[in-house]
Amino acid sequence: MSDEYFDVVNDRDEPVGRERRSEVHARGLRHRAVLIFVFNAAGQVFLQKRSMRKDVSPGLWTVSCSGHVDAGEDYDAAAKRELGEELGLHRAEPPSRWFRVEACAETDWEFSWIYRTRSEGPFVLHPEEIESGEWATPEEINRRLRERPGEFCPGFRWIWSLLARHVEGRAVAGHTPA
């Protein structure tokens, strides 16, 4: 993994400095990330299986697309960039903001905006980032998380748990996918 720079932020998500990725993670500094759920018209969610080359959670299932916000970049620009880099989805506008989570141990000290968008694919998966991907209904995801939680990234399990009470039989969190 490259050692890019991130904005280090305070507890109000305000930049207070810049540091290398390796230092941010090693020291548990607050920083920023984006997570994007891609839905298809059938209400399925595209899941990605992280590449074995990843330094965090290699080979585990997670959200459709995710990444850090680079130093000097804003959340929406990062979401748009990550969709292009990881899935080959190039759009004029960023995906829709869905909700925000505070930096905490469960997010590895990342303030995160969670986004949602709609696409039927096909996707062009970035091989250094993603080993494979598949569509799954929210009910299938819930079942897999109950039966095989270790196959999913800890951060995904935590984010999904925020949504899970709203998932069974309905669109995720009661929202119709964008």
User: Largest sheet, order of strands side by side?
Assistant: 6-3-8-7
Strand element count: 9
- Work out the helicity level: 10-25%
In what range is the share of β-strand residues? 25-35%
Q: Report low-confidence residues grouped into runs of 5 or more.
A: 166-178
CATH class type: Alpha Beta
Provide the gyration radius in Å. Answer: 15 Å
**Overall number of domains:** 1
CATH topology (fold) name: Nucleoside Triphosphate Pyrophosphohydrolase
What's the helix-strand series? EEHEEEEHEEEHH
The number of distinct helices, counting runs of at least 4 residues, comes to 4
Structural class: alpha+beta
The shape, in one word, is globular
Q: Compute the separation of the termini in Å.
A: 32 Å
For CATH, the homologous superfamily is named as: Nucleoside Triphosphate Pyrophosphohydrolase
The major beta sheet can be summarized as:
4 strands, mixed
What's the average pLDDT?
Answer: 89
Q: What's the architecture in CATH terms?
A: Alpha-Beta Complex
Description:
The chain has 178 residues and is an alpha+beta fold. It has a single domain, classed as Nucleoside Triphosphate Pyrophosphohydrolase (Alpha-Beta Complex), CATH 3.90.79. 23% of the residues lie in helices and 30% in strands. It has four helices and nine strands. It has helices at 21-27, 75-87, 138-147, 154-164; strands at 5-9, 15-20, 31-39, 45-50, 61-62, 65-68, 96-101, 110-118, 130-136. It has a four-stranded mixed sheet with strand order 6-3-8-7, with helices on one face. The protein has a three-stranded antiparallel sheet with strand order 5-4-9. It has a two-stranded antiparallel sheet with strand order 1-2. The N and C termini lie far apart (32 Å). The model is unreliable at 166-178 (pLDDT under 50).
